[in-house]
Design goal:
- The chain has helices at about 5-30, 30-35, 45-60, 65-95.
- The protein has about 100 residues and is mainly α.
- α1 runs parallel beside α4 (about 65-95) and α3 (about 45-60) packs antiparallel against α4.
- The longest helix has 27 residues, at about 5-30.
- It is elongated and about 55 Å long.
- It starts with a helix and ends with a helix.
- It comes from Actinokineospora spheciospongiae.
- This is DUF2516 family protein.
- Keywords: Membrane, Transmembrane, Transmembrane helix.
Length: about 100
């Protein structure tokens, strides 16, 4: 593998880790009742999903044979950030006029 391609893949691998960590920390800091109010899975479920995502992002690489697990971890973290997080924020702020 050319050196430039190697470093590009390394940057992609490690850039995904803070995304997963952010999703886990955000899930950890939210109130448990907000998840049910937002009609989403429970807080322990999302903590498990995002913790598993961080684990997959740390243990596997996009460039190696574990790319499937790495991709699944990134998708799980992004689903939390894009779908669950906005609903939790909306529920905890209350209705806006």
């Amino acid at each position: 593998m050319p050196v430039l391609a190697y470093w590009i893949l390394r940057v992609i691998d490690w850039a995904a880790v803070p995304v997963g960590v952010f999703a886990f920390i955000h899930a950890l800091l939210q109130r448990p009742d907000a998840y049910s109010a937002a009609d989403r899975l429970s807080k322990p479920a999302w903590l498990g999903i995002t913790a598993g995502a961080v684990g997959a992002l740390l243990l596997f690489s996009f460039a190696n044979s574990g790319w499937f697990f790495w991709t699944a971890g990134l998708v799980a973290a992004l689903v939390y950030i894009v779908d669950v997080r906005p609903k939790l924020i909306e529920v905890q702020r209350g209705q806006r006029w």
